[in-house]
User: Fold this.
Amino acid sequence: MVTEQPLIQRLCVIGVGLIGGSLARALRQAGEVGEVIGSGRGEDNLRAAVRLGVIDRYDTDPIRAVAGADVVVVAVPLGAIEPVLRAIVPHLAPAAVVTDVGSAKGSVVADVERIYGHVPPHFVPGHPIAGTEQSGVEASFATLFQGRRVILTPLAETAAASHHLIRRMWELTGAEVVDMGVRHHDAVLAATSHLPHMLAYTLVDTLARLDDRAEIFRYAAGGFRDFSRIASSDPKMWHDICVANREQLLEMIALFSADLARLAEAIRADDRAAVLAMFQRAKRARDNLYLE
Assistant:
């Protein structure tokens, strides 16, 4: 009897946290991965990953971890991607395909170009639009990507076979996979993900510095809780995103700041019609354009 081989014989996940761990869990659940090797700096987290059955074994040295891997997923913070890639490049298997999960693609492509001098055909930039405010492998779960979108940003140099493999890998997790240009991706994510996180962090920081902050947080309503939840996300990860996508993010901050200033002026001038019109436009946009 011939047994069908899994899509990925040996998967190496560098950074076995929420995203990397959930990907490994989802591929195991789909029966489409053979051996899973984890790597990272936190050995306690890696031991937990083995205990939970997320990975089969680990090596804190990424050079040894990638040996013989068909697919290498780099799931570390954006600021750590270049040194990781620089370390593993000479040690990849000849047919290995490499992808990442970074939230800003322009900086990742620039990292790759600095290392190789070009974008190699086996590299497929990617970004799963999924996550929670939790981090670490113990927060991972197999259904994280179901019904969510994964954006791939292949370049002209990206091999069709590599692109297809990474697309299929993410489809097996239950995700909807779409392709997008690098710059367009970073502009869209600056508006829909990066700016909201900056606003949440800033608002919570502002309120936390008020003299009566304890009372303010005690009586905060559900809307504040829901909006501020993302301020519990990993600060280092979002620091890296802020730096990596600074150009696009600054454009969105400037646009939002101008609109907020207009709202403040309308309130100051008691221009009730302007305030109501802004709120009505926002409600129509939210009701008509936002798709869960």
User: Anything to note?
Assistant: The two ends are 44 Å apart (CA to CA). The CA atoms of residues 277 and 283 lie 10 Å apart.
